[in-house]
Protein 1
Amino acid sequence: MAMYTFLEENDLSGRTIVPFNTHGGSGLSSTVSTIEELQPNATVATDALRISRAEVADSQSEVIDRLGEVVPE
């Protein structure tokens, strides 16, 4: 998976990682725990945004709201 390769090759120590994904039914699966394993010195938000493939078309406001919560102005 491209995201895991990126996390294996880059040191994000001291940073906050805010996972989000679209899915076909699996939700986050083990995404958060895998990120925590690959980046043990980063903070990983556990309340990741997950959007079902059936809801992607109507998710723009939800994504914008979440970004407003996690990105400082």
Note: The mean pLDDT is 85.
Protein 2
Amino acid sequence: MANSIAAERRLLGADFAAVEASHYPALAALSAEDALALARTLREHRDRLRGMVHANRRARRGKGEARASAGNDEALARRKQVFAAALKRVNHRLDILHGTARRAWHAAALKDALARKRAAAAHHPASGPTAGQGMHAKPSAKRKVRTDPREIGRVSQFVKAGQARRDSR
């Protein structure tokens, strides 16, 4: 669920300064280096809060060290979600900033590879000695049993007659 800027300001308090630059009029004005630095800062805040939420859950289950809770777990989770959403916005902006340069670099690399392929001499080795008469057929190792078709009919008629005798009894 998306949060409004006012809700983020109310939820984060003093930490809102780190998130403020991730909203769009200010985010569009950032250079790639500044956006990268902002992403690092937001990632650190998000990871710190994620660790706190994880430690609180472990403490509640009795697995972690029993210490005073760092705050309400739901509030910590919402704060973490605010930092995660801000990081998502900044990462998207970084993809936009780096995307055109990355696409141009890949296109140039592909054109260079195509030029190298076209410039390379085709490898067509000599055919060498040929077979002359060609290959010889290899005789099949399967047994060839030819059954007379009349024998097949005789056997099936014999079975049919035997069944009729048993049925009439």
Note: Helices lie at 5-12, 16-20, 24-29, 32-61, 73-119, 149-168.
